Amino acid sequence: MQKIFIAILLFIITAFSTVGQDLKIGQRYEPVYSQYWTNGLAINPAYAGSRECFSNIILYRNQWMGFDGAPVTQTLSSHAPFKDEKNAVGLFLFHESIGVSDYYDVFANYAFRFKLGNGRLSLGLRAGATYFQGDYSDVSANPEGFGNDPIWQNESEIFPNAGVGAYYYTEKFFAGFSVPKLLSYEMSGSTKNMSVNPENYDFLFTGGYIFRFSEAFKLRPAFLVRYRLNNTLQFDAGANLIFYDVVWVGGSYRADDEYIFMLEYQVNHQIRVGGAYEFSGGELAGQQDGSFELVLRYDFSYKMRAVSPRYF
Fold first, then answer.
1. SS3 track for 8-42
2. I need a surface site. Which of 34, 72, 243, 260 has the fewest CB within 10 A?
């Protein structure tokens, strides 16, 4: 019964919250990623070019497996610095399916970079749009005889948006701050209202450090903090053990009561694959099959200028 209740709750959140009332795009939180340091462009436009090569990442995420309508996410990101090393660009594509709703993001990213101390500081901008589509035609809860009711009709809309970020990194350390989306929207019928409301901002803070114990063994702790002005706070903190710069084994904890196990493998200088499995220790414990995330990164090494492996 608990599993059925949670499935119904997911359906209500994703379907009925957008039917017959305001659609509040600004209330959506930025998606959660277990391997956020690898998929940095997804949360921070200033990450563009930071790998000092033409880097491409594909991510697949299946959250709360076992529930119909639970979030399923795919992302594709590509970014590279210019020859002058001061400018970088990137493209980020995103799709997430939640219940009867689909969200598609397309964002172009730009970063201006300059040397600061022993590292490089990057200031980033992104611009693009979210395409929302709600498909209510197959909703099993559609009451008989109401198939032509306007509240059960499919809907779609485009929401332009922009974001900002800053990213500082050296060979051993990184820190980032970003607001991925600056604009909020409310839909009421055919009316679309745009606003700049800081209360809807996701303020994201990231950081990490490399401890080198030997050539064979390293430790990299990292964290991600998400904050909203309504006092909503979420954090993700963990660490990876790195063996011979090839095998990465790690774990992290995310509030509330989510535990993550990660395994990554550096196939060669260009190819890296990683997977993460999450399970809940709170109210959802034992009620779903956890969450799974898979990442594939391919770096075109002919432009690689880094003198040592990059760890983020």
1. HHHHHHHCHHHCCCCEEHHHCCCCCCCCCCCCHHH
2. 243
